[in-house]
Structure formats: structure tokens, C-alpha cells
Known about the structure:
The structure holds two protein chains of two kinds. In chain A, strands 1, 4, 7, 8, 11, 12, 13, 14, 18 and 19 form a ten-stranded mixed beta sheet that branches. A six-stranded parallel beta sheet of chain A has the order 22-21-20-23-24-25, with helices on both faces. Chain A contains 33 helices and 25 strands. In chain A, helix 1 crosses helix 2 (36-64). Chain B is an alpha/beta fold. Chain B contains four helices and seven strands, in the order βββαββαβαβα. Chain B has helices at 23-38, 56-69, 82-90, 103-109, and strands spanning 3-8, 11-16, 20-21, 43-47, 53-54, 74-78, 98-100. In chain B, the strands form two sheets. In chain B, strands 1-2-4-6-7 form a five-stranded mixed beta sheet. Chain B has a two-stranded parallel ribbon with strand order 3-5. Chain B is globular, with a radius of gyration of 13 Å. The N and C termini of chain B lie far apart (30 Å). The chains are: A alpha/beta, B alpha/beta. Chain A binds chain B through residues 187, 189, 192, 195, 197, 199-201, 203, 205-213, 242-243, 246-248, 251, 340-343, and chain B through 20, 22-24, 53, 55-57, 59-60, 63, 86-87, 89-93, 95-98.
Amino acid sequence: MEHVLPPLENSVTGLYRSVLTHLRYSLGKQPDEVSARDLYRAVSYSARDRLLDRMSETLARYRKNDAKRLYYLSMEFLIGRSLVKNLAALKLDGATGEVLRMFGRKMEEILEEESDSALGNGGLGRLAACYLDSLATLSMPGFGYGIHYDYGLFKQEINNGYQRERPDSWIDGADALHVERSDLAVVVPLYGRIEHAEDRWGQYNPMWMDWKLVVGVPYDIPMAGWGGRSVNYLRLYVARPSTDFDMKIFNQGDYFRAVEQKIDSEKISKILYPADTVSAGRELRLTQEYFLVACAVRDIIRNYLADHQGFDEFPDKVAIQLNDTHPSLAIAELMRVLVDEYWLEWDEAWGITSKTVAYTNHTLLPEALEKWPVALLERVLPRHLQIIYEINRRFLDRVIEVWPGDFDRMGRMSLIEEGPEKMARMANLSIVGSHRVNGVSALHSDLVKSDLVPDFYAMWPEKFTNVTNGITPRRWLSRSNPGLCALVAEHLGPGFVTDLERLRALEPLAEDPAFGEKYLAVRRENKERLSRIIFENAMISVDPDSIFDMQAKRIHEYKRQLLNVLSIMAEYILIADDGVEPPAPKTAIFAGKAAPGYQTAKDMIKLIHSVADVVNRDKRTKGLLKVAFLPDYRVTLAEKMVCAADLSQQISTAGYEASGTGNMKFALNGAVTIGTLDGANIEIAREVGEENVLIFGLTAPEIARLTKEGSYRPAALYQKDTLIRRVLDALRDGRFSPSEPGLFAWVVPYLLSERDRYFHLADFTSYMAARKKAGEDFTDRLLWAKKGILNTARMGFFSSDRAIREYAEKIWKIESVPG
Amino acid sequence: MRIEKTESGKALVLTIFEKTLDASVAQDFKNALLEDIQSGRNRLVLDLSHVTFMDSSALGAMVSVLKALGRDGELVICGVRPPVLSVLALTRLDRVFKIAPDQEEACYLLTPT
């Protein structure tokens, strides 16, 4: 018998019926007693029903075509809010608005009920979310695999200028977002020891004994492509104990210890580690990484074996992408499963693994490359350590064949770092076990080859490639800037959000004063909305006619929020002490979280607030300069910021930012980038035209030379440059912390140290000049509009659709399977 | 725990009537098998057809039994359900024990004494 349900209707009547049904039967509510929260959930369930139908159809289509599948393994997926995206993707937003009106509610009110799914720290996690959006939009069989953390990135509150972290439990309400698939649960072994034995044919047989089992239960979040033609999934795993209690402990009468062990298993998926937290040596982080990898590899093999026999076709049907080294244990796990559980010979298993896996590098900071103590690996994953050793032994045999007698090189390339504490180098494992290694911007990919891992590049030049990051225009234009979308659609018609290069057709309009005025009017409206948000959240009143100058990103020394603050102090001193007015009134807006254990970053937040206090209170700056810090930066806030920016601060020390994606979001919405020649800024300048960005500062080779020569002399700059001296002296004298004079004394020696590896003072003067130029350009309204329009028009290259097509073609070899 | 023992030619067939072989029963399981070995039985068939879950302590017990059997003894397991087979594969114990679909086949696989 064929079981067929009538299709769900997307009409207003059909949707109304769905919402009523969910109110009554999923939530137990009567229509006359529903809250905004109830309606949010009922609408979410109604959207989810439709997404599940499409997902089922999409998966059947992929299966029918025996399409190669991509599995994107990432410890982070920063998806933000889903409902609004899903409604737009399904073209249900109009009908939903109608239905909500029947309940006397407005769409925006209901959308505000959804918590951000903050399952990521920043760029890396947001990139993963953008890529899932593009994969579905392009009807490509690509699926995300991650961890269903109970607590995502912390909520940031500001108390007396200091960051306070609060737990963020996003899962309240997430039941309307995802579907539990306990039928697809997998068991994951951890800990134990290797018993060295023989098999029944007398061969060496290492047996992994005494492990503990944890169960991984998947939750699927449907990922709708634009237009709803294809719906893929993001599969997130929750850790559960293998049985409710350890019965032995329970039977011994130790109920509490049994409960503790249950909690131990569950804590694997409890919390997302903040970035910049020293995670090396942290057992929980290692178990999290392995948990993800083990769940994913089992699921991938099960999917593959559902339609194929043997593993010969595996690399032709499966691609696994490692989003940074965090899931790099997938290489050892796939080898273990193939060799131990499916009895493949080592060489065959290695051929399959290394043709299947590819690795994206996201950092140039050597200290940020993951390493795990061998002793910890041996305790947590004894069999995997054996496999890593064997991979290394065979790999080093090849190295010595290529470079006979070069033992220094062997030491650098080895997967194991010798020293007082032996460490496993996960980046080396990722490179050795992958068929492609990509950086995320042209500069970054070059530096990976020349500076980060030159030995590996010399050995396998063909492995290394570049895929510059991208952002989804559905989130970062359609959602974030509906006013601009409507304006663009008036001239280009619909459809540009799935073909962003079409924005190029706006170029002639950059010369049209009438269009320029409309363009600025849209931004003015966005700035007014942001002004209200700033007042509500930071209690600072700002002028929407001032230049909105924004730096919104994680707080990190290399991103140089400090350079921005120093320049604000300088501009303040010029106004207050010298009476020099800036070319245009300015509102400097900051947002970003500091990792809880990263004290310098947390001190930076306090510094920004203290400077803001002094600047904003001083009558001499009235109408000229304001400083605001918006707390709790997250996807939803970013959506409201990027569309309201005039100026986008992308000022990392050259050679430090792998790509950046915030730079792309701001530029797509027309903000002018003020930035260094770092990461994707270089490509943004290339695309939008150097006359439409403000580039300043030392280049990556110049920074590298200063570093190599040790010739950076900040004290000489302090002596020579009066403005630098005035700013630093003001900091030292407590001008920006009048009630606590010594509070920022640390900044001065920090900046004057020749070991300041972020070269703040080296770029100060050129940065000040670029800021001044920005202010001057801003005063010419039509010039400013022209620059904005040309930024928007020429950012098509940075669509995540382009990035995904490149990955599909160069690395994954997957194809679109349209419905 | 409940174990039923039957003779089949030279073999002693032990059928485990437990759904779960874990730490709570592993010691009893091990003792029961070691008892037979100590009494001179060295051709054993272990029927796991009722077992749906086995943890590492039960696998450890099986390794102890194997060691006690020595080079002259033999243990064949049968009726292994997929979840149990997967933990045997995980530990590579499927390379150590002969595995048969049922008791009859298991007895056939035993090397004659």
C-alpha cells in the first residue's frame, strides 16, 4: 500500500489551517489565548512541515541520481535565526504576514521571538552556515555535520564597561526548528587501551578494549535553498549515555555516581568552546571533536552503503570537507573504520581516505594550529593514536625519499612534534590525509604555501589551492537590507540574489544623482533603525546624519580594535584641545565579543567604553564625535548593522586575517572599506576599484620583513610623531580613565614594545590620513553615494554561490541535481 | 545471569539468555565460562542470539576466556546480531573468534580434537 498525504497548501488558507492545527495539537492552545511566542512556534512548525516535505523529495532526487554527496564537517555552524530565512526561501513570507494579521500580530514582532542559534564563534561558523545556504540554493547534495550544543556562544552583557558572560541556551524553542532522528543514532567509543594480540591467522591484531560508549543522537535542521526547490539538512549530534545509567555502579548502590557518569556523557555536547580559549590539553574539547567525527563517519558510511557495495566507488560518491583542523580526526577515524571494521588493506584504505577528504585552513597564526598532547590522545583514543603513528611512519618514509638526509625537514613535517611533551600536529595530519588543501583568500592561500607550510607545498604543490570565502546574499542583502533590495529590484528586476554578478548592471546608476539620493535614503532609514537600537542597548543617542563608522567582529589583538580606539582618541584630542573639527561628524560604532579567557581582548572592551564615556560627555565634541559599543554581537545584530554602515573598518595587521567575511557583508551593502591589504580586502579592492576603498598601512611582505629583521622601533615613532605622543601620554596620564588613573597604563608599554607583533604604531599615521579622507569624501553626498553603489554593484564575486561552485569544481567534484 | 549449556558432540554450547551483556553481568559471564574450561572443556560454542547489546567489559571477559582456553582450545560464537557484531569489529575481536550464523554451523567450524 502506498501511503500518500495530500500536499500542504502554501496559500493563506492552507497556512492558516496549519498554524491553527499546531496551536491546538502541538502547543495545546486555543486561538484566543495565544502569545507572540505561541504564534512564533506554530508558524515555525508549519514552515518545518513544508520543509520536511521538500527535504524528503530532495533526498529522493539525489538518491535516484546516485549523486556524489558532500559532507561538511564543522565544529561550528553560526546559523542565526532560521524562521525568516525559511519563510523567504519557501516564498511563504507574504502568506505568513496575512495569517499573522488574522491574529492581530505583525511579522517582525513574531520573528523577534526566535533566539539566534549561536553555535559558532564568528567567521568560521558563519561561513559554514552561508555555504549550507548556497549548497541548497544550487541544488547540490551538500550536508552539514556538527554538534548540537546545549549552550552556544555566551551572551555578552556590559557592566560598567566590562564584558560579562551569560549562558545562552538557544534550544528553548528549537524543537520547532529541527527533527530528532533517534533512528539514526550511533554509538561512539572513547578511552580504553590497546591489547596487543594476534588474530586467528597469527597476524598482529591490536584490540581496542575497555572503551566507554557514548550515543550520538542526530537532530536534523532543514536547510532550504532560495525558492525552496531543494532542502538539504544540517545534522547536529547530541551526546547521550549508552544506557541511562552504568548498571554496575547503580547496582553497587552508588546512585549518585551513576548519575554523574550519565552527566559526563552528556557534557560532550553541552557547550561550545569559545575561540581564542586555549583548548590544547582540554580533554572535553578533544572528546567533542572526536564525537563529531565519529558520528559523521558512521553516518556517511551508512548512507554510502545503502546504495553501494564495497568501497571502490567511495571517493566518487563521497566528499568530506574539514572546516579547519577541528574535525581532522576524521582522517584517522575513516582509516580505522575501513581497516578495522571493514577489513580493507592499509594502502587501499589510505587511497580511499586521502581521495575523499579535503581540508580548509583558516589561520596563519602558528600558535592557532591545533596540537594535541600524545599522552592525552593515547588515553582518549588509543587506537587512533596508533593509526596516526602508522600514517606518520609511512609519510616520513616518503619525505626521506624525496629529501634524503634532511632530518630537520622531517622534524618539521612529522605529524608528531618531539619535545618535553610530545604533541600530535593536526594541521600536518590534515594536509597529509587530504587531496586538496585550500586557503580562504588569494593572499592567505599564498601565505599558506610560502610561510605556513612551505615544506608540504614543496612536496605536493598540486594539493594546494585557493577558494576565497563568500557570503550568502539571501542573508546579507535580502534579509539585512530589504530597502536596498527593493530599490535594486526596481532597476534590475528580481532574481539577482541568486545571481549576484547581475548587480554589475547598477554601475551606470552610480552616476545618476536621483538614484544616488534614493540609495542614500535607504541607508538613512537603516541608520535611523540602528540609532534606535543603539539607544535601547547602549543608552547613547547618535545622529543618523553622521558618518556611521563600524568595527564589528570578534575582539582580537590582530584585528586591531586598539588602532581604531587610538585614532578616536587622537581625533578627540584634536577636537577638544586644538579645536580642529573633523571633515564630517562621526559615530564610531563597535561590536564584538572577547573570549572569556582572553584578558587583553576583555581589557579592550573596557578601553572602548572608557573612551566612549569621555568623548560622549565632553561638550566640545557635541555634534562632531560619538562612540558607541553595541553589546552582544550576533548574526541578528549584524544584519541590522551592515546595512547601516558608511564606513567598514577592516584594519587587521597585514598577513594575519585569513580572509574575513564581515568585510564582504559591509561592502555588499555599500559601506566603504577602510582597510589594510590583508585577507579578502585585497580582492575587495580589486573588484570594487581602489578608488572606492581606503587602503592604508604596511603590506604583508613589509610586516614580514620588519618581523624578520627585528627592525620595528615604535619608541622612535613615539618620539617623532607628536600626535602619537599626545595620545599615549593621555592614556598614561589617565585622561580616559579619570576615576581610575592607572587603568590603561598597560597600553603604553604594550604599544612601545618592539615585540608588538601587530605593529599598531607603524600604521597609525597612514590610518589617520585614510580616516580623514573618508570624512572628506562623506561630505560630498553624491560622491559617497557613488562609492556605495559601486561597492554594491561590484561585490558579486563574493557571493557564497561562487565560492561553492569553486569548491564543487576544484575540490568536491559534486554537481547540481535540480528538481 | 542465565546461561543454558548443552552438549553437541565434543562441543559445549552455551546459550546466553540475556539481552544485555555489560558490566553488571560481565563477571558472572566470565566465571561461568572459566568454570567449564577449568573442568576440562576446551571446545566451546557461545550462542549470542538473544544478546542485543554488549559493552567493553563483556568483550574483556571474552578475551579472558580466550586466554584461558590457550592454544589448544577453541571458542566459536554464533547468532551474533548486528549491534554485537559492530562492537566485535570495533575491537577487532571478529578477527580472533570464528563467527558462525548458528549453532550447527559453529559446531561444524570447531576443529575436531
